[in-house]
Amino acid sequence: MDKICRACWKDRFWAWLIDVLLVGILWASLLTISRTYSFSPVGLGLLMALLFVYWTALEGYRGQSLGKMLLNIVVLGQEGEKIGFKDSALESLGKAFLLPLDCLIGWVVYKGRGQRAFNKFSNTIVASANEGKWCT
Fold first, then answer.
1. H or E element: which one contains 74?
2. 27 and 40 Cβ atoms separated by less than 8 Å
3. pLDDT in the model for residue 134
4. Which residue among 12, 65, 126, 132 is least packed, with the fewest CB closer than 10 Å?
């Protein structure tokens, strides 16, 4: 039986970086418009919350953030099904607030599975969105 082709860590990193830069630019623009130039712990916490909402909304709605769309990868359920907002929120929680720990646990505990800890907790995988691309 064939399995869905999981996205490589390189593509996942670039998608994450694109998303962080896009949301960061929006965040910096809002700070400039409001004449608030503080990148305090509160400001960074609000940026992380904005990233959490961004990822939850886009990935819960269509399985892809803008970065994932550009790299042609998608978040799916374990069997290749579309995920909902609940799974998206849980998956995004680690990515937005606990990424170093999320990746470290995933790499150590789920070695060879290509999953962050919060992917495992939310029963999601990140896969190639190329139609017909399957791994054996």
1. strand 73-77
2. no
3. 46
4. 132
Sign of CA dihedral 70, 25, 58, 44: positive
Helix 85-97 / helix 41-62 crossing angle, nearest 10 deg: 150
Apex 61 CA angle, 59 and 67, nearest 5: 35
pLDDT in tens, 67-99: 999 999 999 999 999 999 999 999 999 999 999
Return left, alpha or beta for 77; rule: phi > 0 is left, psi -120 to 50 is alpha, else beta. beta
What's the one-letter identity of residue 84?
G
The number of beta carbons lying within 10 Å of the beta carbon of residue 128 is: 19
With a CB cutoff of 8 Å and minimum separation 6, the contacts of 75 are 59, 63, 64, 68, 83, 88, 91, 124, 125, 126, 127
Question: Which tokens in the block code for residue 111?
Answer: 């070695």
Mean pLDDT of the chain: 89
The tokens describing 85, both together, are 């907002």
**CA nearest neighbour of 17 among 58, 70, 90:** 70
Query: According to the model, what pLDDT value does residue 1 have?
Result: 32
Instruction: Say if residues 7 and 113 touch (Cβ distance below 8 Å).
Output: no
pTM of the shown model: 0.88
